[in-house]
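For reproducibility, we list the full input for the zinc ion complex.
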Amino acid sequence: MHELSLISNVIEAVERSAKENCICHVSIIKLEVGKMTAALPEALEFAFSVLPKDALFKNAKLEIKEKEVLLSCKDCSKTFVPPDLVQLFCTRCGSRQVDIVEGKELSIVYFEGE
Ligand SMILES: [Zn+2]
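The corresponding predicted structure, in tokenized form, follows.
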């Protein structure tokens, strides 16, 4: 499952950063998930609950925010949110030469703990 590897990267990154900052209990991890990652919030929550993790995460909760996909047209340089993610083309000139500017990453916005 795609979500398991995404979440295991998150766990690793938070664990490393928590140790650097002398945090022993993480309470909230806020994530921003681009719609293009095709990772469902419920599946991410599930992955987080089943993956083995440090005691650091005993009471940790995920807060997941979905992030819209943003495209940029190579032909007319318009930047836009696509109406759907099945057919990606420019809403101004119809070109299919589009770059994904945002929406294909999962990022940690912040995490809290003490
Ligand atoms: Zn265009």
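The CA atoms of residues 29 and 111 lie 4 Å apart. The domain at 2-68+103-113 is CATH 3.30.2320.50 (hypothetical protein PF0899 fold). Both points were considered when choosing residues for closer inspection.
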